[in-house]
Write a structure and sequence with these properties.
Elements: H1 2-13, E1 16-20, H2 22-30, E2 36-38, H3 42-55, E3 60-64, H4 73-81, E4 86-90, H5 93-112
């Protein structure tokens, strides 16, 4: 009987869920991940991540980095201590573009000695 319980645990721990803005979620849907959830509302984002975390059905939950700010500090502390499920916050395409703009401006300042504004 204990083998059956551990087998059930192993089966669910391999599941992956992705929750976040459209830019992050669409890519995972295209590669065949079924458990993807697009959320745009702050309250929905927090509820969905907590729901997935508490369900016991997933071993890995990937969420948009912007969702992290929408979670309570108590819940963030809990998920940072958790190994299963593991919750990873990934930058969306929008966030990455902003980081790229900053790094190009910083590079121009260092190499050319001038400040530029990247649009």
């Amino acid at each position: 009987m204990s083998e059956q319980v551990s087998k059930q645990k192993a089966d669910t721990s391999g599941r992956l869920a992705v929750v976040g803005d459209r830019e992050l979620v669409i890519g995972y849907r295209l590669i065949g991940i079924d458990d993807t959830f697009i959320v745009t509302d702050e309250e929905d984002a927090s509820k969905k991540i907590q729901e997935l975390y508490s369900s016991g059905e997933f071993g890995l939950i990937i969420a948009s980095n912007s969702m992290r700010d929408k979670l309570s500090s108590k819940f963030i502390a809990e998920i940072e201590e958790s190994i299963e499920p593991l919750v990873l916050f990934m930058p969306s395409q929008k966030e990455t573009a902003e980081e790229d703009k900053e790094s190009i401006a910083a590079l121009a300042k260092r190499v050319l000695g001038i400040s530029i504004e990247v649009n």
